[in-house]
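in:
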């Protein structure tokens, strides 16, 4: 019963507990298999009794067979009831052992073992009784790691369990990450609102959840809640975060801290000087220029400057076209080269659009198409009032 004291496994040690856990899992699965077999054997017994009754003759012999038929059916039913009762007793005993093993494993920093046991017996709900601020991190981390190896809908059950445990210990940013994994907007919004319960840390936690949501392209899911906030300063800050309007600024700050702001060239990536020359000079081909355009765009993505496409001279006019990589390409190559401007000015809507603007008036349709594509790439993942894309 519920008042029954749990088994104290401390004197027995970790190895015994682990061995007992294996035996419990084995017995649990055996019960499940026996249950399915018992159902089929019970049906077979009933079919046999009915067949035996059908073989009897009419008249007096049929009258004698009737009690036998009833007796066979009753015996089959009684046997099935007895097995069900025995199964209930045994499963209750196994569950009692599970209730004893789980707290022991959690107490001795064997959270994966406790979670594995509960996964095997499909009793993950029992975790909530044993979770506290000391062990939640390892338990939830193992849950989130194991969900990748489970088939649906078991993976969903594990994620739901992790979400409820994070919420239980008021780890709302972690709960928000799981809500996004579940693609559950209601849970994400509920987690954001739940931060109000932690008075002093509420704003900092909301900012953290806003950054998490914006990074996962779920910022729009919080926009309505943020707009309804009474605190204008907090509202403005959170709107900036979920719109990613400061993303380029943050990216450049990190780049400066790491000292990687200097623009790079495709040659820095190719390292041609390390490759033995196979005769002949450099060939100025369209394919080489197209490769340069792609590499240049990706290696300088988000840095807002490069050495091949962006024109540092604002009033260079037509003179710049001779050295600009865009005009060294032909036909569709111009589309890719112009669009690489969007990669270079990624997220920087205010600084990137003026850089792209002059190509929007080009009479070359390929350059114009690339410029339009560049506008879309620049604005990717951001929300702006002018909404240029």
């Amino acid at each position: 019963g519920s008042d029954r004291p749990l088994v104290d496994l401390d004197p027995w040690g970790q190895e015994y507990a682990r061995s007992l856990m294996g035996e419990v899992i084995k017995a649990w699965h055996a019960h499940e298999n026996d249950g399915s077999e018992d159902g089929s054997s019970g049906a077979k017994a009933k079919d046999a009794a009915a067949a035996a009754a059908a073989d009897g003759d009419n008249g007096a012999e049929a009258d004698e067979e009737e009690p036998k038929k009833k007796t066979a059916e009753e015996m089959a039913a009684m046997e099935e009831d007895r097995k069900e009762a025995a199964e209930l007793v045994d499963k209750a005993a196994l569950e009692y052992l599970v209730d004893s093993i789980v707290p022991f494993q959690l107490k001795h920093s064997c959270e994966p073992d406790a979670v594995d046991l509960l996964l095997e017996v499909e009793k993950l709900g029992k975790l909530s009784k044993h979770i506290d601020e000391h062990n939640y991190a390892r338990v939830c981390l193992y849950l989130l790691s194991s969900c990748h190896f489970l088939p649906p809908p078991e993976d969903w059950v594990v994620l739901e369990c992790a979400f409820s445990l994070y919420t239980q210990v008021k780890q709302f940013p972690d709960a928000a990450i799981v809500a996004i994994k579940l693609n559950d907007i209601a849970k994400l919004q509920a987690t954001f609102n739940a931060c109000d319960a932690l008075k002093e840390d509420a704003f900092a936690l909301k900012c953290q959840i806003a950054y998490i949501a914006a990074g996962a392209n779920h910022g729009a899911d919080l926009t309505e809640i943020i707009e309804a906030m009474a605190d204008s300063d907090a509202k403005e800050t959170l709107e900036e975060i979920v719109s990613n309007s400061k993303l380029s600024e943050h990216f450049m700050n990190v780049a400066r801290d790491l000292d990687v702001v200097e623009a790079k060239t495709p040659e820095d990536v190719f390292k041609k000087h390390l490759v033995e020359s196979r005769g002949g000079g450099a060939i100025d081909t369209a394919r080489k220029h197209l490769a340069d355009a792609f590499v240049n765009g990706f290696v300088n993505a988000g840095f807002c400057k490069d050495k091949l496409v962006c024109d540092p001279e604002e009033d260079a006019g037509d003179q710049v076209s001779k050295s600009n990589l865009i005009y060294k390409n032909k036909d569709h190559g111009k589309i890719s080269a112009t669009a690489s401007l969007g990669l270079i000015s990624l997220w920087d809507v205010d600084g990137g659009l003026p850089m792209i603007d002059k190509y929007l008036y080009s009479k070359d349709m390929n350059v114009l198409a690339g410029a339009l594509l560049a506008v879309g790439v620049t604005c990717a993942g951001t929300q702006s009032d002018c909404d240029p894309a």
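note: The two ends are 65 Å apart (CA to CA).
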